[in-house]
Amino acid sequence: MTYVSTTTLSFDEFIAQYGDDDRYELADGELTDMEPTGPHETVSGKLAVHIGIAITNGKHPWFMPRTCLIQPLAEVATARRPDIIVLDEPFLVHEPRWQQEPVITLGRSIKLVVEVVSRNWETDYARKVEEYALLGIPEYWIVDYRGLGGIRFIGKPKQPTFTVCQLAGEEYRQQQYRLGEAVSSGLLPNLQLCLEDILPR
């Protein structure tokens, strides 16, 4: 992730200029280039298929929008664009911006957020953990398919790691899965997934 801002932007300025461009996020008023790669999109796409199957089999009134922004805090000029987001469709009637633009401001609308780790691993493992917990999002998955995260977060030796963060009170309880281990989700108990299932070939 590369910071490209020369001037700071408000949330609304970001929406007006970059809301339709999947390449950018906003963090504290600074525009950031997400720099997606083919392998990154491969992992995101394969994972979305598995999540979709689990949602359908569970008969949940949820869906994954093609594009969506999260405004974590109204007073901070930050706009997150998760790799995957699962929304609770019935609750969207309470979202003040949804009818005009795909922007989520209420954590209750979100069931799951997934970030596929790239060079910005610090943000995925630290700041977003705090932001998403503060919003009250029940589950946050960190998919570090190349083992890029710091040793503090994924251990040593560094290896591909799938972290499921489940909200317990105001903080996430984290469970890590490695190659060959079945991923378990409290939100999607019928999920059938191992890290190998979503790796690029």
Automatic annotation (TrEMBL):
Tell me the InterPro entries matching this sequence. Answer: Nuclease_put_TT1808, Restrct_endonuc-II-like, Uma2
A GO molecular function annotation here is: endonuclease activity
Q: Which CDD domains match?
A: DUF820-like
Q: Name one Pfam family in it.
A: Uma2
Q: Where is the Putative restriction endonuclease domain?
A: 12-193
Classification via Gene3D superfamilies: tt1808, chain A
Keyword annotations for this protein, in alphabetical order, are: Endonuclease, Hydrolase, Nuclease
The protein's matches in PANTHER family, at most eight in alphabetical order, are given as: SLL0198 PROTEIN-RELATED, SLL0888 PROTEIN
Q: What is this protein called?
A: Uma2 family endonuclease
User: What organism is the protein native to?
Assistant: Candidatus Synechococcus calcipolaris G9
